[in-house]
Amino acid sequence: MAVPTVMAFRMGHIDGIVVQRDDANEVDLAYLADVLEVNFAPSLGEVGGAPGGGDESSAGVVIAGGMAGSSSLLRAKAGPGQAAGVPERHAAAAAAAAAVAAADPGAGLFQSSEVYSDAEASFIVAMEQTVYDPGGGPGDPLPKELAYQLRDYLDLLHWTLPAHWKLHDLINDLRTDYDSVVKGRKDLLRVLDRHRNPGDRPQWGRSCSSGEYVDPGETGGLDVLPEFEGYSCGLLRMFHIISVGVARQHTFLYGDRERARPSHAMSVMRGFVGSFYAGSSRVLRRVFLDAADSCAFDFCERMELVVADTPPSDPGWRYLSIWLCNVHNSIRSGIASAAGEKDKTAQTVAHALVWPTPIDCPKCHSEPEGWDYQELYRHIETRYWPPGLQNPRIVVVKSWGGRMPLRSLKASAKGTLSSSISLILLVALGIMMRKYWAKWQHDRRGWRKKRGVTYHADESGYSYHARNGRRRKGSALRSLAAMVGRGGESISKRPAARGNVISTHSFLDG
Hints:
By secondary structure, the chain is α+β, with helices and mostly antiparallel strands. The protein has helices at 29-36, 91-102, 107-110, 112-130, 144-160, 167-176, 178-181, 185-193, 231-249, 262-276, 282-293, 299-304, 319-343, 346-352, 373-384, 407-444, 476-485, and strands spanning 7-8, 17-18, 60-63, 74-77, 253-255, 395-397, 449-458, 461-466, 471-472, 501-509.
């Protein structure tokens, strides 16, 4: 009977190891754990049974759902070649899947369905409620500077988010139809409606619905509204996901490689908060902007040293995640301090809000003077990045010299300028036509200025001198005949001696 070949991948490695089978054509979990350099955590109880149900023989490894947020679980028994609820021939595959899940010690903390659904909900609310003023006109275009900020943010999401996240469909649609997006709120909502069912409203998990990011006494902003109570929480979660994506996926960005720098990502997030944040925490806005502008925590100076060609192993790629963690803690402490000023418990509350706590991550606090940054980044990655392997996603971002070419904005500007020029040209054309018509009428009625002309004969024949000083040689008769034809008086054709004046006439000449 043919059996599949099972490949084992250690966390963070792309080189697989072929899993060997025993004489019974089965895979031993102890051997698999040794290959992957992990320890399996036992979990009691059968899938679908009551909590704590089952016996010792059902102890195994719990495999959580992936990016799709599935709540289904598989269980691989500790015994070789067996898996509860799974046919025996699939025991090896179940064991390999168990090893992948166990390779991430924080898979239970990750809760991908909640972390990512919260971030996605806040992104949709931001597009719907904060890009344009909901009270403004549906056809008012987005100001040029805000349009640039939004495009930078969408590009950052495009290459930093995990490859299998379904939110990419909406982001790609917004980027593809960006000329419509910046024309007005109506066009933006039309793009959003293509990716949701009528009546769908964003929802946040319990950890984002506690009103944690509402300043004391604040009555404005989205977070105070029941339908948007998780907005600020989900936005910060999105930023954490971005920060980890910069460290993990910068090698897959092509085109404008300068955008892969952590300092650029920090600048884009700062711009988004400054331009579009509409939550209920002024503390969040102030702390975030100040931390970015004043180079708080000394990490932005280090991030400036990280360029596109910096080796992926350089710790500078992880500084954005650590910087953001410090900013996040400062935001929570600032809100707690503002609340504590009223109930005199500021220091106690603010100190308790430092994340991760020593209980959550004992190794993160192993340094006597503060954090162990290597362990802290690992904990952040565990919390905000999906477990297991992620297929690389090659992304090409065009270089626009620091600014995106917004065709719609330029077309709008050109349209306004063209309209003005067209109006000026029409007025000028009307004036010219009016002048031409008046002259035509003038000539048609024979209105001409009165001029005296003296005709005389010389060696070349008859000619005349006009008051304007011009002289025409040739036959005086021909010249005079022409003048008569243009409305002059009749003139005698009697010839005269050469050099003598023959006649002086007054006639109308135009």
